[in-house]
Records
---
Amino acid sequence: MDGQPILVTGAAGKIARYLRPRLAERFGRLRLSDRVDPGPLGPAEESSLCELADFDAVSRAVEGCAAIVHLGACIVEERWEVIHDSNILGAYNVLEAARRHGVKRVVLASSVHAVGYHPTTARLDAGAAALPDSFYGVSKVAAEGLACLYAEKAGMDVACLRIGSVLPEPTEPRHLSTWLSYPDTVRLVIACLEAPRLGYTIMYGCSANTRSWWDNSGAPHVDYRPEDNAEDYAAKILKDGDARDPKSPETMFQGGFFCAPGYVKWG
Ligand code: 15L
């Protein structure tokens, strides 16, 4: 990366904390951005605290970076104003600052919740229609739209990762399809940072789960080879069967528990 740091936003979060030493080992320097203290800095890390909704602060964090791993966001359903400021305005600020500073590559955390109302019987590829299940999901659709605009218009390389469930291990039946292990998260982010080109790329963030709903074959230019499989935990998770109501929105739709609050189309 020519001595320039990679900016990691959301650097205090659980995914970033796992990624940071591994990205530093691979690429060298990291610049960390978060609204809160990202914890003790590693030898290759520098910190640039900022609110994602503050363009000038984001711009300072972005300036001089080789690439950006944009993980910073509100990661649960919240009031619209909160989601808007952190996730939509935040994504715009990161992409626009990247454009202005000539930072060509951004790996952006999208989510399964951008497509959460697809049924669990469906198999989705990068062309699947947006079907957000929450304001949070809408914010990820918006972030994907912005990423597409900056890739097409400004010639940037942007990968949107529709991340499933990042956990040390899967703990419930839905995770048999959605799990993304921490080591596979590292593999996915590195593959996106090292792909010769991205243009506008959608990748599903999941491990090599036997019961996966998602197909990344449309992105052969990203050499992502997951090594973990939630199926290894299936016997443990299903030892008493699957107690879920098959007619509940949580079970019917890929977004799981995000799909139920406010859902009125019963029966
Ligand atoms: C997400 O996008 C959330 O950020 C995370 O908290 C989980 O809920 C995950 O999706 C999931 O659907 O399991």
---
Amino acid sequence: MEQFNEKEKWSEIWLEALKSNKTIGFVPTMGALHQGHLELIRTAKSRCDLVVVSIFVNPTQFNNSSDFENYPNTLPTDLDHLRQENVDFVYTPSPEEIYPESPELKLYFGPLESNLEGGFRPGHFNGVGIVVSKLFHIIRPHFAFFGQKDLQQVAVIQRLVRDLSFPIELVIVPTKRESDGLAMSSRNLRLNKAERETATILFHSLIKAKKELIEGKAWFEVQKEIQADFEKNQLTKLEYFELIETASFEIQTEFNPSKKSSLVVAAYLGEIRLIDNISINF
Ligand code: AMP
């Protein structure tokens, strides 16, 4: 595995790869790697000749400075994981490499911008869009791999690729979970024991709501019941629990089985904000 910090170095490697007709798969991450990231990497390995992983904690996508400052940094262990997975290249740029100056450009993703993650984290998707665009321009991969765990981010990046004509195929990888159902996340490292135990409420509420919707219960009743479940629990605070049409991310007021729909949730466990989702009918 080769680690590099400078885009000029990658340009040389990229040219060689292209000359020998190798396909390049790219997995962008913010580090603190867990099995969810490794699932993306394994999928990339199975589909591409060369895999490059980036580790960069992008300051511009954090709307909360303490979340940024406390974001876990486990670089030596991350590099060990990547070596074990036979990753070919790892890009670990400095903030100055990515942001020689702070960008003036703002990206606006339409309705995706104002609802759910967009609404609760102002500026977040602009930051994601800018950094992913920069990384796509630097790495110039054929394929890029993203997790279904961040479903609204997937919709944003699909929009980005379409609207800016990036010649990149996106591959979406299902959410990897702990054995009790909690979606793996780098932020789970910051949960204390009681919060970690309570955190399964996100997944359990998604499963319960999906079952009830499929059995024909009205969405407003299901939502009220889930909100009450969260209110009963002292250790967690629900931010949203919504039914959306998956492609547009539009919030639905009732369940229509002929529309591809998903349930999405965000909740705090103490200071830590977690998100999760499941698809209902595909
Ligand atoms: P992050 O390091 O949190 O920016 O995540 C990097 C990539 O890993 C993103 O595409 C995430 O959606 C994906 N990812 C994070 N957690 C999981 C998970 N539990 N299962 C699958 N993919 C994940």
